[in-house]
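Appendix B.2, paired examples.
Example (i):
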Amino acid sequence: MTARPSVVVFDVNETLSDMEPLSRRFADVGVPPELLRVWFAGVLRDGFALTAVGASGSFAVLAAEGLRTVLHGVPLNRDLDSAVDHVLAGFAGLGVHPDVPDGLRALRSAGYRLVTLSNGATEVADRLLTGAGVRGDFERLLSVQDAGMWKPAPGAYAYAAGVCGVDPADMILVAVHPWDIDGACRAGLQSAWVNRTGTPYPTYFTRPTVTVADLGDLARRIGA
């Protein structure tokens, strides 16, 4: 990195939260657990599409309606409304990845300001982080709902910089999603791609400032 940032901005869904338990919710209602990834990718796609035409939609609405579409016509072991409710209720029980608590504390000890910037609601992030005992490590919980556009639109990152009172270059976006990394870089932020699975980074996206295996690795790379 060319300069040490002052604010570390965390994506929430999948970056901090472990969403894999939701796959069991799909199995509970009688469908393949692999549909989790199909459904979540569809939610992101539709959020991006609305932003592209100057509109916006809440994550909760897109998640519910998208799930109805994914489960439509699929044999279920309960009615559709009950299936949708059961899957979405799983968000309340999600936890963070094992590397998250110690990684966050190391970053805080190194003097960084920590905030979130999620395409989901701040209430979801608050519940997740409170349950993990790390809510107090965060200065602010930010949502694109207040920005009026989803990431990776440049305005979403500009909103976070404005709220935090810093230039975009003084922030580093931490995410597992290459599209989020690319968006942050194009908006002038530094970026850290968390690659817990060893997946290759897409060559058509802007390369991250740093690539790390987990948040502990991130703290070691930028904590000094």
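Example (ii):
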Amino acid sequence: MKKVILLLAAGFIGLSAMAQTKTAAKTTTFGIRAGVNLSTFGGDDADDVKSKIGLNAGVYANILISNGFSIQPELAYSQLGCKFEDGGDIRYALDYITLPVLAKYDFSNSGFSLYAGPQIGFLATAKIKDDNDSEDVKDSFKSTDFAGILGAQYLIPSTKFGLTLRYQFGLSNIVDEDNVDLKNNAATLGVFYNF
């Protein structure tokens, strides 16, 4: 898993460097983002689950393709899962390294943008927790997760800071069992900074 993450990080850096050298000045920007996930499980077997709060943080490159349209690959860490009450407060805590590739449209001179695209996630850890114990359940979950991303953002005028809101909807079953249907869903509210 560490080799995969290192390979992906190297590829992301290489892509960013290549994009920067092949495009004119100011057509590729880089940034960081951080936010809070409100995640839960979806799917046919997601009964009586409640939302769980987690962290979402990462880096991105925004590559201008044409006036107002850009592609934004990202590399992020995302805490997903859910909680439910079964004689106590029980939480599924799933940590992923995610790679979204977003198509983004900027509405000229307004600061508003809309974006959408696919995301692949690589499972780093999976635990089931209650108030007293934590148990590793990584073997019960698939190592990759596929999702779609829809979102909007607002760049604050005369700054490099902005606000972003996105929704991740699961496209693939995350459980390593044929007769169980669970998917990761999450809403994320965050901030970003363009370098």
